[in-house]
Amino acid sequence: MTANEWRFRRARVVGNSICGLSLVAAMGGVLTPSAHAQLSGKVRIDGSSTVAPITIAAAEMYQMENPGVQVTVGISGTGGGFKKFLDPRPDLRTDISGASRPIKPAELEKAARYGVEFIEVPIGIDGIAVVLHPSNRFCKYLTVDELKRIWEPGSEINNWQQVRQGFPDLALKLYGPGTDSGTFDYFTEVIVGKSKASRSDFAASESDNVLVQGVAGDEGALGYFGYSYYEANKSKLGLAAVDNNSGRPVVPSLETIRSGVYSPLGRPMFLYVNVEALERPAVRGFLEFVFANGRTIVEHPRVNYVALSDEIYEACQRRLRDGVTGSAMATAGPGETDLHKLYVTE
To answer: What's the DSSP call for residue 236?
Structure first.
């Protein structure tokens, strides 16, 4: 199994996999064991394709300790994941939902209506990469204003020469996440100015793998998806820096995303945990394992995201242990993204 297959399969991750063994070996045995040994049961996870590499990696490592636990990881997009997490039929609900954006007011209302109590915990930081066909040598960067003009509803830009004077006469083909994706929500909010406000004539998919293949096979392509998917496929993709209209284009990297310099396309990722599911030892043990090993999992080369501080991971463990329900992000002030302030000093 290649690293790419490992990271991006729609996973049903089970027990003593060779991949799990090799991953633990690659980490040099530095993982912190979960507090519960030799558990059994099921853990059901769905949601963001951006968060999936983290949960897939954590599932395989956790199951090496607990081969009696079966962890399934689905990829329905952030919105699709919340639909399953908040299903009106309790027996069909997932235990954990991965999200590349905070829960929305309409989803909070749905949770209240169906009596779904949840705990919100951040897990890492991602950047959205603006990607090109690898043969594209003329587009070194795009400004936020240019991206807005390209992607806003009603845009009629369909050729690169319409984007900027000096760009060639080349048909522009757009690729992006589907409307159930948290990446779609976040990109449209910070680039266009309103969540879900986008032109509709682009090749959309909830699978970032499909988007990678589309951009890699189309000379005039422009697309966007999570930075780690670019990193895993950079041999067949081009990358554009982003200028937030300051005149200083920034190339996404772990360093520029961690520091906040890659703005406005850096964003936190979350896990939402069903409180009732947390009562099951297999689910609680999985989450204890995830946050005890947060930095190791999130920054492993096969995952390749930006980890949070140890203080925030410890705060997440307390939040789970103490049963702190609700969304800190939903009650934050406009534009508030200081995770330390929201989760450590709350």
So the answer is: G
